[in-house]
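hiii so my PI (J.) wants the whole complex modelled not just the main chain, which honestly fair. so below is everything: two entries, each one labled with what it is. i double checked the lines twice but i was tired so who knows lol
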Amino acid sequence: SQKIEQNSEALNIQEGKTATLTCNYTNYSPAYLQWYRQDPGRGPVFLLLIRENEKEKRKERLKVTFDTTLKQSLFHITASQPADSATYLCALTGAAGNKLTFGGGTRVLVKP
Amino acid sequence: GAGVSQSPSNKVTEKGKDVELRCDPISGHTALYWYRQSLGQGLEFLIYFQGNSAPDKSGLPSDRFSAERTGGSVSTLTIQRTQQEDSAVYLCASSLPRLAGDRETQYFGPGTRLLVL
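here's the output for the full assembly
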């Protein structure tokens, strides 16, 4: 069955450092992969999308890589700030491009 | 502009009762999705509406769950004969039409927190 795995352990990181999150998937051929941020009590907020034919995407302090051979995406937050503390969700979509299949999310805590 | 809104924000009900959850998508968004997020679980797809096409109901967990979308805008998710395991946050999302440039991005509402006693 399709499976999307994110590190369930919280990532504690010092302000200014780079946080790196991993998303691994099996039995899936995604057309594209997205990363969302979710704060407590709120709905997810879109951050970045990367397509199957793209290797890397950047947006401000965020960078996403996508390796369809390894079936893995890495999500980096550079120069992390306490305001980056949240849960980060990886989501995949197939070629039909409708529903998202989410990983369990990784909680990030940036300490000042 | 206004984002996706959901009501009520919180709902407490007794086991066996029916509940209705409402979603108002962003104006102009033809696609609408319902997801469920249980405590400690990831988001789980429930149902998807795209324009006038037949909805994708493949994620509905049982026949106690149903959803409709009237006039291509507002959607209602109905849970009949609620059970304690239905307790979760129910999230609605919308996205642009299929041919739009940013159609893959889903915009989520704040969710409805349902507690079944």
